[in-house]
């Protein structure tokens, strides 16, 4: 029972919230009202949960020694010894291979390609790319974009340029905020702290990451405003235009939280910060009204 519980913990179910990105493209297209679409999206969500958990397990095995030097990550099941390495490797390999194979049942080659690409990219990230400055930011952001693209592919929703740009910038914002919070935490630990878990932290400065975060935020706001104002003309409801308000509030709130040092675990922010949740619900409601009215 102890090993089973440790295995579940190592799969990081709290981080499955990231896989809700598969709903983004169908939601933006107003396609979530169909039961068949919802069922397909649920299947794609499950595929990415399996794929992500598999790569988390393999990543934890690869990083076990470095995780033991981290105040929080040393409690992860593999690093702490609660989950045997052979079990983690076997489960990770099975889940990582099962996701692309299971995607074949949905009958969409593009979806299978995207799920396979996600698994391969995350494995490359674990083995090498996570230690390459700047490249690590782009790779993690790309994984988020692949989730969103897979949701659109599964239900036959083409991705617009606006959608891809906003999602890409939002993903970059989250990843950069995470690195900035990690770097701040490492520096706050003092000069006597052990080497950083992420080697790339040696190549970044807080100023650079903060500037990159500002750039991503500004570009994302401008892109979203152009999309919303283009859709909210005189012949359409103004809900898209009004949605600019909660969108900007969301970006401002997230940047404030990161500046306070709370961005190290983005999923925890999404699950616990009530103002952020309110702005997201308001944004979704206004966009939904603009689509369906």
From TrEMBL:
- What highest taxon heads this organism's lineage? Bacteria
Q: Which InterPro entries match?
A: UbiA_prenyltransferase, UbiA_sf
Record bears the keyword Transmembrane helix: yes
Membrane-spanning residues where? 43-61, 82-103, 109-126, 133-153, 159-177
List the subcellular locations: Membrane
| One Pfam family it belongs to | UbiA
Keywords, comma-separated and alphabetical:
Glycosyltransferase, Membrane, Transferase, Transmembrane, Transmembrane helix
Species lineage, top-down? Bacteria, Bacillati, Actinomycetota, Actinomycetes, Streptosporangiales
Q: How does it sit in the membrane?
A: Multi-pass membrane protein
EC numbers listed for it are 2.4.2.45
Instruction: Establish whether keyword Transmembrane helix is in the entry.
Output: yes
**What is an example of a GO molecular function annotated in this UniProt entry?**
glycosyltransferase activity
Q: Any coiled-coil ranges, and where? A: none
Report the source organism. Nocardiopsis tropica
Name of the protein in its database record: Decaprenyl-phosphate phosphoribosyltransferase
């Amino acid at each position: 029972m102890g090993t089973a519980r440790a295995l579940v913990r190592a799969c990081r179910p709290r981080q499955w919230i990231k896989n809700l990105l598969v709903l983004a493209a169908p939601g933006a297209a107003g396609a979530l009202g169909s039961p068949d679409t919802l069922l397909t999206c649920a299947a794609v969500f499950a595929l990415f949960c399996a794929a992500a958990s598999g790569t988390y397990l393999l990543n934890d095995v690869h990083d076990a020694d470095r995780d033991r030097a981290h105040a929080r990550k040393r409690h992860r099941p593999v690093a702490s010894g609660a989950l045997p390495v052979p079990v983690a490797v076997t489960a990770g390999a099975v889940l990582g291979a099962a996701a692309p194979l299971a995607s074949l049942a949905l009958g969409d080659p593009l979806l299978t390609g995207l799920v396979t690409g996600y698994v391969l990219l995350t494995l490359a990230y674990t083995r090498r790319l996570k230690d390459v400055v700047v490249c690590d930011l782009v790779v993690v952001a790309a994984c988020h974009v692949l989730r969103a693209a897979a949701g659109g592919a599964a239900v036959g929703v083409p991705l617009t340029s606006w959608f891809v740009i906003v999602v890409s910038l939002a993903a970059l914002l989250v990843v950069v905020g995470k690195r900035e919070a990690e770097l701040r935490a490492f520096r706050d630990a003092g000069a006597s702290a052990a080497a950083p878990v992420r080697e790339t932290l040696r190549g970044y400065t807080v100023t650079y990451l903060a500037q990159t975060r500002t750039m991503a935020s500004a570009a994302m706001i401008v892109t979203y405003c152009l999309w919303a104002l283009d859709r909210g003309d005189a012949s359409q409801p103004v809900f898209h235009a009004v949605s600019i308000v909660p969108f900007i509030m969301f970006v401002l709130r997230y940047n404030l939280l990161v500046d306070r040092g709370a961005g190290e675990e983005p999923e925890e922010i999404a699950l616990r910060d009530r103002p952020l949740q309110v702005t997201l619900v308001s944004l979704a409601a206004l966009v939904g009204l603009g689509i369906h009215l």
